[in-house]
Amino acid sequence: MLDAFSRAVVSADSKGAPIGTAELASLRKYVSDANKRIDATLAITQNVSCIAADAVSGMVCENTGLTQPGGHCYPTRRMAACLRDGEIILRYVSYALLAGDPSVLDDRCLNGLKETYLALGVPLANAVRAVEIMKIATVAIMTETNTGRKMFDGINSGSGAECKDIASEAASYFDRVIAALS
Amino acid sequence: MKSAVTTVIASADAAGRFPSISDIESVKGSFDRANARLEAAEKLATNIDRFTSKALDYVYGLHSYEQANKDKCARDINHYLRLINYCLVTGGTGPLDEWGIAGMREVIRAQLLPTIAYVEAFTFIRDNLDIPSDMGQQAAAEFKNLLDYLINALA
């Protein structure tokens, strides 16, 4: 597992050179944006059930057959597995966001996920749709463009507009999940 | 690769939980120290050849080691300083542990190398660090911590 710092180290080591001023510039930016990164991570961790439940419900609403007998989310045991997986994916996205590097998501969550779903008969298109909704919801919460509670009232970095860059980084991690399942 | 952030994430993952408030506090703590660490890394990168050659001259002044091995000795000191530069960047001892210390005793013993020479070289660098012309107080403290860590592993 790597983070933004160890990613720089691994690439410098392959050249056998120490990390100098040029490479340090982007790491300094990572450090100076630390509060935004932490707020964005909190935006996920404090809204997990909301994001995952809405995404799975939304996906089911678009395909009502899923909860009918014979559907993939029938009986409730399978629907519950679906909610659980949504939370697991969110958890790894939150790790990647905190680390500033997708390796933890790739190694521990996405590696073999598609094969597992195929083997279990999980419909990939529906899984992808749920992840898409989670992405939209997460970005909306981070940038405070959601309806309902605004995330950053009174904490570190101030406003959702300032978290735009971090939110698009988070969106890129969801895109990785979608790419891995497609 | 072990660093301040990955250690926290690994333990959260082992417990299957989201990053908790205390996880985030400890990540934040490492960010607060990051400026000193990055300054130390930057200054070390700029001065790495100077530190190496001064330490080398010091060690060769103490003992009558073979002159033929001098460039290899310089290469090794430079290598360890580079790993310390990486540790300063990651905020953990991962690079030194994985690339510098694991297997080190076996290699040194097999090659019949004098570990004391390395210990003396790194002690010399640690004790002759010029504050603030080499690096600032906080940065020097971070650098010296890692030099001590390496010296203890070698000794």
Give the tally of β-strands of chain B. 0
Query: What is the name of the CATH class of the largest domain in chain B?
Result: Mainly Alpha
How much of the sequence of chain B is in beta strands? under 5%
Give the helix/strand class of chain B.
Answer: mainly alpha
Architecture per CATH nomenclature, i.e. the level-2 architecture of the largest domain in chain A: Orthogonal Bundle
What is the C-level CATH assignment of the largest domain in chain A?
Mainly Alpha
The 3D shape of chain B can be described as: flat
- Describe the oligomeric state of these chains in a short phrase: heterodimer
Radius of gyration computed on alpha carbons of chain B? 17 Å
CATH architecture of the largest domain in chain B: Orthogonal Bundle
State the low-pLDDT regions of chain A, or none: none
Give the topology string of chain A: H per helix, E per strand.
HHHHHHHHH
What do we call the CATH topology of the largest domain in chain A?
Globin-like
Shape of chain A: flat
Q: How many DSSP H or I helices of chain B? A: 8
